[in-house]
UniProtKB/TrEMBL annotation:
Every Cytochrome-c3 hydrogenase C-terminal domain range: 227-310
Subunit (UniProt): Heterodimer of a large and a small subunit.
Signal peptide stretch: none
PROSITE patterns, per database record: TAT
Residues that coordinate or bind [3Fe-4S] cluster: C275, C294, C297
Name recorded for this polypeptide: Periplasmic [NiFe] hydrogenase HynB
Cellular component annotations (GO), alphabetically ordered: [Ni-Fe] hydrogenase complex; ferredoxin hydrogenase complex; membrane; periplasmic space
Length: 313
């Protein structure tokens, strides 16, 4: 029998256009994303219900970015609806109604009220050169805001490659001295890189944190459940590529056209992310499935180290 909290949770999702069937569909996708067996779907659903009962306060900061990571989950309505029922967003420049001085006062009040208890989500790189003069919000530099807010958080999630490692903003020559959260102010952060990050990875990380589950991470601060294998290792085209090599070796002209994109400059073997399984746009597709080579966007310094993104054949 459902509790009043569970009934309220599903009622709120219904109001957002997310049916229980939709919810369970994304629980299934999230279970696969987290590397769990299908038998764990029910457990994952229970964890989301429990997390919704807690609804931790979230302060979401925007620095040097394109808002693509926010767009990624807002344009995945069902996942976005689930996330917004799982957390309580106290400050988010894109989706909140407040603006100007009122918005800045909301930020100040939220940090004070939830000091040491809130989840800080950072989107975008932080300018550090010339005392952070290359990036400001409300007359204050990104750097000042980061120092004022992030140290007061219970945990910090750096979403997108810009917040994690500097991303495009930090590409050479980088006159603004843009850096990721940890490099900019030395604060520890769970990095969820990607351009943009996948909303399922954000939801999975929030769940692990709220349920006090161990968060195994690699040397770049990325959760292994999402970034433990390369894009190439999970790529559905890999099998086709093996068939392509076999067919070529024996002179067959019947070569399937879904072969690997390595010869087109795909950076899949050097890139660690779960794009082939989590996918984007309601788990519809991801770049390689659509015929575009991976550009390595979840790797540190990808804009400088992974270029050129295309190679002539």
């Amino acid at each position: 029998m459902k509790t009043d909290q569970q009934i309220e949770f599903y009622d709120n999702l219904e109001k957002k256009g997310v049916s229980r069937r939709d919810f369970l569909k994304y629980c299934t996708a999230l279970t696969a994303t987290m590397g769990l067996s299908y038998s764990c779907v029910g457990k994952v659903a229970e964890q989301i219900e429990a997390a919704a009962a807690q609804r931790p306060a979230v302060i979401w900061l925007h620095f040097g970015e394109c808002t693509g990571c926010s767009e990624a989950f807002l344009r995945t309505p069902d996942v976005g609806g689930i996330i917004l029922e799982t957390i309580s967003v106290e400050y988010h420049e894109t989706i909140m109604a407040a603006s100007g001085h009122q918005a800045e006062q909301n930020l100040h009040n939220a940090v004070k009220q939830y000091d040491g208890k809130f989840v800080c989500v950072v989107e975008g790189a932080i300018a550090t050169a010339h005392n952070g003069a290359y990036g400001k919000v409300g007359g204050r530099t990104f750097l000042d805001i980061a120092w004022d807010v992030i140290p007061h958080a219970a945990v910090t999630l750096a979403i997108g490659s810009c917040a994690a490692y500097g991303g495009v903003a930090a590409a050479a020559p980088n006159p603004g001295g843009y850096k990721g959260v940890t490099d900019a102010i030395g604060a520890p952060a769970i990095n969820l890189p990607g351009c943009p990050m996948n909303p399922l990875n954000l939801l999975g990380t929030i769940l692990k944190y709220l349920n006090n589950e161990p968060m195994e991470m690699d040397g770049y601060g990325r959760p292994l459940f999402a970034y433990g294998e390369s894009v190439h290792d999970r790529c559905p085209r890999l099998k086709h590529y093996e068939n392509f090599e076999f067919a070529t070796e024996f002179g067959s002209k019947e070569v399937e056209m879904g072969y690997c994109l390595l010869d087109l400059g795909c950076k899949g073997p050097e890139t660690y992310n779960n794009c082939p399984t989590a996918k984007f746009n309601d788990s519809t597709s991801f770049p390689i499935q659509a015929g575009h080579p991976c550009i390595g966007c979840s790797e540190p310094g990808f804009w400088d180290t992974m270029t050129p993104f295309y190679e002539e054949t």
